[in-house]
What we know:
The chain has helices spanning 18-32, 45-53, 88-97, 108-113, 143-159, 168-176, and strands spanning 5-6, 37-41, 76-80, 103-107, 134-136. By secondary structure, it is an alpha/beta fold.
Amino acid sequence: MSDIQIVGAPAGVEGSGFFATSLDKAVGLARANSLWPLPFATSCCGIEFMATMASHYDLSRFGAERLSFSPRQADLLMVMGTIAKKMGPVLRQVYLQMAEPRWVMAVGACASSGGIFDSYSVLQGIDEIIPVDVYVPGCPPRPEAIIDGFMCIQELVKTESTRRRNEPQYQKLLASYGIQ
Ligand code: SF4
């Protein structure tokens, strides 16, 4: 069984008819296979990500070879590495600059929970400042685990209603992070 944790799996949308459901599926399939990840790599886990992108593991097989270093053109934020508290506002700003729909993956123990750095200066998980959809465990996670996490994101994207981002539950989640 996978150790990867997926958060916010979509609930069924009441009253969606055949057309809306089919549209959701078509849009979801297209989105899931054309994600533009933004790698926010600060330390060792970033090296594993480089291996994930290289020819042996080749994330382009999943339609995600086009990395985006501009948050405006990215829809998947992949956070890899130790995030110092001083860096938190920068990460949050990057997240805020991404347009909806956007997804977030915490890759590795540091991004997920602070990892071994239980210190006054290190964020004990990026979900202290932004919502996270998928957590990938490991120190560092191997490329296979990163790909597994990516596939979890794809499943989430595929099954997500195109209207979920306007739903009160999602708005409430953002509000809990002080995001309008
Ligand atoms: S989880 Fe481990 S490998 Fe990844 S950034 Fe932290 S210390 Fe480095």
